[in-house]
Amino acid sequence: MREVSxxxxxxxxxxxxxxxVHPIAGPKTVPRVDYERIFALDAAGKLLGEYVxxxxxxxxxxxxxxxxxxxxxxxxxxxxxxDYAFTPFRVDDLWFVVLTLGVxxxxxxxxxxxxxxAARVHIVPNLEPTLAQRDADIRQREIEIGEREARxxxxxxxxxxxxxELQIVGIRLxxxxxxxxxxxxxxxxxxxxxxxxxxxxxxxxxxxxxxxxEMPAAPKAxxxxxxxxxxx
Length: 232
Prior knowledge:
The protein is of the alpha+beta class. It has a domain at about 35-135: YNR034W-A-like (Profilin-like).
């Protein structure tokens, strides 16, 4: 028989012992994420369509509107309401907001965005009637705004015209008031002059001597009449 040296022998007591440290870690537990709804919005944030993935989801589009940050939505930047997360995806001129119970991982968000971008070709035809109605409403709204602006401009022009007319009337009133003051000054001057004349006349009549009795007139001398025939 072949002998085995003691140096190469494996001690029997070490048999069956498992290592306590593993060089490769086991798989981590991935948090559960439930997909509840997908909201399709236009560039202005108006609802175009909604896809319900879970009928028991308590949140709706109104909750999405209340949860949007003041700075607005950003691509792949989630915002939250309680345990629910709204994750917006910008695909061309549309927004797709995915509502989930739990927060999707970064790699999941990238996959979802890729799927939505590919599905947009099929989603948009379903939204065409809504988009067409939305465009018609926008055009009608623009027409109404244009008409309102035209009316406002006309009112402003009329107000400017009336303001100019009022300024002219004000200038004329000031001129008329100045003329009235001049006339009043002349009337006051004439009145004062008449009072002075009346006062002076009364003083002159009071200073004159009283008239005496009337004296008889002196007899006239007889006229000397010589006849030419009586001469010597």
